[in-house]
Amino acid sequence: MTEITKTLLLVDDEPSLRAAVEAYLSDSGFKVETAANGQEGLEKLQTMIPDLVITDVMMPEVDGYQLLAQMREDPRLKSIPVVFLTARGMKSDRIQGYQARCDAYLSKPFDPEELVAIVENLLDRRSAATSFDVSDPPDIATLARQIQEIKDILTHQGTTTPKITPVDIDFTPREQSVLVLVAQGLMNKEIASQLDTSVRNVEKYVSRLFNKTGTNSRTELVRYALEHGLAT
Question: At residue 16, does pLDDT exceed 90?
């Protein structure tokens, strides 16, 4: 079976960088559409649904944050992974990026190979998420880092304080216990050990949590739980 080529949308107002990144991504096997600014990016998103978006943060008129916010409000686009490219690499900037619900944050200058690795990782995760993969993620270190950065937001280590919006979801006591342990970064085997149950049962509970929260991956589930005060 022929593998379908993934389509990326690259948004950056620096022509030389945009051309260089487009060439490298194309050589890596991706189909790349480009936009010279955030407004053009939004216009392209009205006529195409890419598999992933790579966008600069600091752009005139419509910046990366505004582009991402509009994507997350659009049912057609809200689940598309977004990678931020920025010259601002301080921890507070990364936290602000994750608070805005980007999926990865890469500081300029960056190694093109690292960008390709991030893109491939996010696309693999998205593909797995569509089938509600409740097994442990292959890259545990990345998951742990993402969980910690989300928690950093809630402990006010960044420059802004996030809003926690309470939600009323009818979790069973066991589902709530599993959710708390997932938010702590524990894997299925560790959760099963702590709750004195089987890994298969833990997978069932994680699947139920995906359904009840409308999430598709462990990272999304953790973010949802922390943002809505369902776990600490």
Answer: yes
| CATH class of the domain at 140-227 | alpha beta
Q: Do domains 7-129 and 140-227 have the same CATH topology?
A: yes
- Please compute the mean of the pLDDT values over residues 183-200 and round it to a whole number: 89
Classify 7-129 by CATH class.
Answer: alpha beta
Q: How far apart are CA 222 and CA 215, in angstroms?
A: 9
Asked whether the whole model's pTM tops 0.70, one would answer: no
Burial classification of residue 204, based on how many CB atoms lie within 10 Å of its CB (0-12 exposed, 13-18 middle, 19 or more buried): middle
Query: How far apart (Å, rounded) are the C-alpha atoms in residues 203 and 184?
Result: 16
Distance, CA of 106 to CA of 52 (rounded, Å): 15
Domain limits of the chain?
7-129, 140-227
Q: What torsion do the CA atoms of 144, 148, 151, 153 make, to the nearest 10 degrees?
A: -130
For residue 231, what are its two tokens? Answer: 């776990």
Cα 29 from Cα 22, distance rounded (Å)? 11
Q: What is the band of 2 on the pLDDT scale with cuts at 50, 70, 90?
A: very low
- Segment 105-120 mean pLDDT: 88
H or E stretch at 148:
helix 140-154
Q: What is the largest CA-CA distance in the chain?
A: 57
End-to-end Cα separation, the chain, in angstroms: 45
